[in-house]
Predict the 3D structure of the following.
Amino acid sequence: VGTYYDENTIKEFVAENRDHLEEIEPDLLMMEKKGSDTPPEIINRVFRAIHSIKGSSAFLDFPAIRQLSHVMENVLVMIREGRHIPDAVGIDALLAGVDKLRIMFADILNCQQVTFQEELDKLNAILGSNTAAETAKALNNIPEKKNLDPDHEEHSKVFYEKSLDKRPIETMPVAQERLSTTHPAEEENRPAYETIRVNVDLIDKLMNLAGELVLGRNQLRQELEEAVYGNPKLGTLIQSVDMVTSEVQEKIMQMRMQPVVNLFNRFTRVVRDLSHQLSKEVELFIEGQDVELDKSILERLSDPMTHLIRNSLDHGIERPEERVKKGKDATGKICLKASHEGGQVNIVVTDDGRGIDPDIISEKAVSRGIISRENITKMSPAEKRNLALMPGFSTTEEVSEISGRGVGMDVVKTNIEKLGGYLEIESEKGTGTTVKIRLPLTLAIIPSLIVGAGGQRFAIPQINIKELVCVRAKDVPVQIEAVAGAEVLRLRDNLLPIARLTDILNLTRFLAHYRTGEIIIDRRQRLVDRRNLYKTVADESDNPEQPPERRNSQERRQSWHSDLYVVVLRVGENIFGVCVDELFDTEEIVVKPLSDHLKDVKVFAGATIMGDGRVAMILDVSGIAEHLNLRFLEINSEAMRRHHMKASQESDEDSRRLSVLLFNNSSQEQFAISLKDISRIEKVEPEMMHRVGNKAFLNYRGESLPLIRLEDHLDVGPLPKDKTALYVIVPKAGTPRAGILVSDILDTMESATALKEQHKQPGIMGSSFLEDRLTLFLNTEELLELFEASRGTNSTEKEEAA
Amino acid sequence: MTTKQFVTFRIEDRLVGMDIMKVREVNRVIDITPVPHAPDYVRGLVNLRGQTVSVLDLGVLLGFDQREVMEQSRNIILKNDDIGLLVDEIGDVEEATNDEIEPPPANLNGIELEFIECVVKLKGKLLTILSPEKIRKTPEKQGGFA
C-alpha cells in the first residue's frame, strides 16, 4: 500500500487530505441545516474535496480510502443533482465517512486494516434508495480501475473545468497534477491568495531568531544613542533597522496566527452530535471568527473549550420540554464569541441553560474539604460558584457521573492559566452561564511591565495587571492595615491583600531616605510600622540632634520618596497587590524558558533579556499568589463584614445619632440644640439690640426679631450681665419667630439621641453628659410656644393696663 | 595512541578538569542575575548572545562555600546546554593518553563521587575530571524552593 512513493510524498498526501476533511465538515453541517436550499457552491466544494481525496488515494494506491471516498462522492452527486435532499440521515452517513477517512489518514500505512463496512452500508442505503443498481455497478468496477476516475466523467468535468489550465481530462493524471492545479480551483470561492506549507518547527526557529533580532536591536539602540548626536546619518539608519526589525517580528508572528474559526468550527460538529445523543435541541452561534490567535495557543485551547461546550450541553441546556415549561425557546443556544481587547483575545462561551446553582457547588466544596461550612455562610453566590474553580474540586473519575455544573472546571482553568490566560464564570440560576476566557495573542512575546525591587528588575506580564496604585506616603498609615495576619490595602472600599516584592523574593529591602533620597536598608516588619523605621532613620542620620520624633515623621510622611507603588494583580477572580520599589516602562519581552535547575521556582514564569543585555526574571503571578498563600477568602469575608457593618452603622447613625450645637447661657450650664433645628447663628453687638419694655429685639434682616432669654422661660441660670458680645440662635421656622440669646457657642458634636428624663421640663427634652458636662437639650418648638404664650399674656396684660 | 584534552580549573585550592570536547566556551563572569528561591547551587542567569544560561556555583556543588566573583573568576559554558559553571580560575589544558585515564578511585567521599567521570594521572599528581552529564542531573535534594 502506497509503497511506490517516498515518505515525503505520502506525508504531503496525508497533510493535504486531512485539510480537505477539515474543510468538508462545516460544509456538510451547513448542507444539513439548509436542506434543499443549500447553495450549489457549497455542494461543489465538498464534492471537489472528496473527489480530490479519491483521486490522490487512487494514484498513490490506497484502495480503502479510494473506495470509501468514491461512495461518498456518489452520494454527493445525488445531492448535487437534486436526487437526494441533504437530511440528517444523509449527512450522518457522510460525516461518518469523514470520520472514518480521518482515522485512515491518522495512520496511513495501516489504513487498509481499518474496517469501513458500516459506513459503506449507510452510504449505500442512501444510494440504494435511488439508484441501487447503478451504484452496485460502479462499486464493482472499482477494483479494476487502476486508472483514475473515468467512471464519472461528468463530475470530473466540473472539477477540471474549474482548474486553471483546463487541460482535457484524458491527458491529465489527477494525482500528479493535483498539487499544481487543484488548489487554485478549490480556492475559487474564497479570497484568491496563495499558500505554502511550512513546517511549524521552522516558523518556531524563525520566531526565536526574530526575538534575538529584537533584543540585538534594543541593545544596539541603547549603545548608539549617544553616537547619534555625532553622526546624524546613524539616526535614520537605526530608525530603518528598527522599523524593519519590528516588521519582521510582526510578520513572523502573523505566520503563526490562525483564525479562531479553525477551532470554533470543530464545535459545530460536537454540538450536533452531542445534542442528538442527549436528545436536546441546541443551536451553536459563532461570532468573531476572524480573530486570530497563535497556533500553539489555539491547539491547546481545543481541549478546555470542548470541555466547556460539553458542560453547557450536558448540564446547562435543558431538555426541550423542560425549556418550554420554563418559558424558554425549546431550542437552546450556545454562543461562542471571540474578540480583541487591548492586545489580548477574549473568548466567551455563553449558554441559556439552567445556570450553576451556587449551593450545589458549595455543598460539594464542603464535602471535598476545600472549604469549611462556616466559611460558606460568609460567601456571596458568585464566590460559591467560583469554588468550582478551586483545585481538587473535581476528579476525573467523576466527570461522567456527577450531575451539576462545574465539573472539571478546575482543570479547564488550570489549562487556560498555563496559556497565560485566565477564566471567569458568570451564571444566573435558571437563565444561563457565561464563561469568559482571556488570552494573550501569543506565548512567545508578551507585553510586560518592568518593575524594580531590591535593586533588581522584574517583568510582570501585562495580562495579569489590573491597575497601578500609588499610595502617598502620608496615606500609608490610613490605607494599609493588617487583616488575618496579612497586610491589606484599602482600595475603593475593598480590602486588597498586599505584599512587598522584596519579601516575596527574599531580597534585601531598600528604602529611600525621606529627605535625602539616599538608599538605606529598610528594617520595618510591616509597611505601617513607623517607629522602627524612625529609629533606623535616626540611627543612620549624620545629625544625632534631630528635631523631635514628631516633626521628623511628619516630614517623612510628606516626602515622595516614601510613596508606595502597588501593582494590582489578578489571578482568576482574586486580586492582590504587590508593592514594588520602582516602576519602569512596559516592554514587549521575549520569553526564555527556565532550565531544569530552576523549574521548581514557582514564582517565575521564565526569564527575558532586557535592552541592556541583562537577564530579568518574569514573575508568575499565580505562583506568587500560591507562595503567599493569600487568604483571599478570609480577606473577602472581612471586607464583606465591613461593608455590612458600615451599612448598618450608617442606618444606625441616621436613627440614633444627632448632631448638636453646644452653647452656654450662664457659664455654669451647658445646653445643646439639634443642628437640624437651627436656621442661623448670629454674633450680636449690644447696639444691634433694642429694648421695648423688658423685651429685647434684634435688627435681623431689616425686621425686628424678638429675642428669648432662656432664664425667663426655663429654670436655668441667667446670662452674665457684663457680657458685651452675645450670640443669637435663630431656630428654623417658616418666618423667623424669635431668636435665642446665648452667651457662648462652644462646639458642634454628635450625640446619642437617648436622653435622661432628669431635668426634663417644658422647653427641655432631657439631659445627657456631653464632654463630661451635664447638658440640657432644648426643645425649640416647645420653647418658642412658651415664649409666644408669655408674650401673648404680657401683651394682653399691657393692653388691659392701658 | 589516542589522547584526550582536558580543561582544568580551580575551586579554592582544588584543581579539577573537564573533557574539552564537552565545553563550549569559557567566559569572564559578568552581570549574573540572581534568581530568588532558586537552589543554593544556582548562582543565577546570564545572557549569552541572546540565550539565557543558568550559572551553577561549582563550589557549592563540590561542598565548598559559595564562590566570590573575582577578577580571575570564569564561567565555563557546557556544550549542548544552557548551563555554565562558576569557577575561581581557569588553568592549563592538560593532555592525557587513554592509559593515563582511570575510573574514579573507591575512597572518594560522597559529594565528589557524585560528579566524577574519571581520574587522570599527570606528572606527580592526580587530576579529577568532572562529568557535565552528572552535574546537569544535579538532584533537587540540594535544597531550594519550598
